[in-house]
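Can you give me the bound-state structure? Components:
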Amino acid sequence: MTLFRYGWLSLQSILANKMRSLLTMLGVIIGVAAVLITLGIGAGASASITADIESQGTNLLTVTAMNGANTLTLGDAAMLEDRQLHPEIDSVVPEYTAQAAVAAGENNESAQIVGASPEYAVVRNLEVAQGSFFTAAEVESQATVAVLGATLAQDLFGSSDAVGRQFRIGNQPMTVIGVLKESGGAGFGSNDSRVFAPLSTVQGRLFAAPRYRGDLTLTGLSIAVGDSTLMDTAEKRVEETLRLRHALNADDDNDFSIFNQASLLDIAGSVTTTLSIFFGSIGAVSLLVGGIGIMNIMLVAVTERTKEIGLRRAVGARDRDILLQFLIEALVLCLLGGAIGASISYGLGGLVGLFPAMPFEIIISGEALALALGVSTATGFIFGLYPALRATRLDPIEALRYE
Amino acid sequence: MQALEYPAESANSAAEPGKWVIEAEALSKVYKMGDEEVRALDGISIAIARGEYVAIVGASGSGKSTLMNIIGLLDRPTSGVFRLAGADANSLSRDRMAQLRNREIGFVFQRFNLLPRTSAQRQVEVPLFYAGVTGQPAAARAREALERVGLSKRIHHRPDELSGGQQQRVAIARALVTNPSIILADEPTGALDSKTGAEVMALFDDLNQQGLTLIVVTHDGHVARHASRQITLSDGVVVEDTKAGAQ
Ligand SMILES: Nc1ncnc2c1ncn2[C@@H]1O[C@H](COP(=O)(O)OP(=O)(O)O)[C@@H](O)[C@H]1O
Ligand SMILES: [Mg+2]
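Here's the bound-state model for the whole set.
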């Protein structure tokens, strides 16, 4: 292949003029590294947000009672769980959450106390690291047992095993029966610093939950929908039922809010797509600037190498020999620059991954790599063509005389 | 990869008329500068035979370089006929002219025109690249040519590591490497001191002994005396054409 000969020729010239070559490549190196790192940050952030949301369950509707409304009750939960009325709903987990002081020996913390049924662990994807979650029987008997988030367990009991130990919520002594696995997710209210206890215990013993039409009130419901494509339907029907049970008139506002995890995923998706496009365009612009840099330095190089061009003409170079030499040199420079830029971004990506404080990784996909190298090759071709044509048009006699 | 990709035609047509490697008939070169015309060459007719050693002399501006450019197929005449190894310059395409420069002509310049930061061997390989010879065969032929000019111990040296005389010998090796019929040298000793200049001229004498045709442009009488024939130009016209033996 003749093209290989020119590739080899350009490599010789690049190696013989390392400094000039490096300066020529600099724009592409920076451009490709910028594109890959920005796209990598976008992809990493997107993956981390999606994982965060998915870890909380994507088929979940969360109903939260309005502050002071005191109308959401176990009766509501029972009605929503009725298969006849709400076939699309799998399970409804009632929840009563309040803030309280927790203490173990010398250690005092303020924490969210989540009172719930045992199914809460299932619909919220809670993983128990030590001990176990509380049971239906413990809910029945208002048992004074609790499961701690990993961080809170650490704060209260240090590194020693918390299971079986005593602590207080307000004045109520409680026994730790389980510790959750660290979730790490910082985004949407971490479970790591919460206390989980039987609903009846939290409603009755810890906080005097108000009653509505005889039923103890709740602060929220977690509703698992069987088929995630029915999320919107389920949301609408839950709203209808609750409005009816809370005796709201047509012009009254809801005294609760419904949060749809699936819609959150959609929003997160569109936000990260926008971010990727934004970062990607910044990178693309820097590649363009890099390309103009290449053209500049190649033009200078053509002038600087006028004598070389004259000599090559004298010893038999044809028009296309000169054209191909300079064009392929620009291409090889861009590809080399692209490869160096890609290595730098992979290196930086790996380095960032070593920092535990980083909330997410830099993910450089094969597509992003192909795109960056493709664009830098195109850059080399487009911005290498003009200098190469200039080189071809030099009059050999003038070129030989050039000093 | 094609080795020596040119058709055999030029070699044949050169062998056919046999004797003349260069033929010029009523050769003119006119430069137009606005309204003014400069007749750099004004009806030159010369013929140079294979194996001749010719010096072209004349005052500055007499047309020596213009003639060399036409002989070297870097330029075309405005009128008249010029043939190199039997090929008519007026009917050659640009590419064909480049091929003939590569195959038939070796250039030696006053300022050597070596590539910067490039080893002697790579310098000499440059013409072979355009003849389609690369890799090991090119390296071997380059070393052979460097040996011919007595530089076999300097093949990895770069121009800044060589003396002026050595640089000019690298340039001569580069001119020789494609086995051309003619060496064209424009003031080959102009940038050298008299001692190294004499060494280069001795090398030229050797090459001529080996049968190469040499055409040397010079204003230096010592250099001109090495040649067996001296063509004197003045205002684009041949005013004297003498063979050494004829005086
Ligand atoms: N490219 C050109 N354009 C216009 N005039 C030129 C050009 N090249 C040479 N000349 C003119 O042609 C004449 C011969 O020049 P040249 O062949 O360089 O002479 P020499 O080499 O003997 O000094 C001079 O008058 C010079 O000014
Ligand atoms: Mg001159």
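A couple of observations. The radius of gyration of chain B is 18 Å. Residues B 31, 33, 38, 40, 58, 60-66 surround adenosine-5'-diphosphate (ligand 1) (CB under 6 Å).
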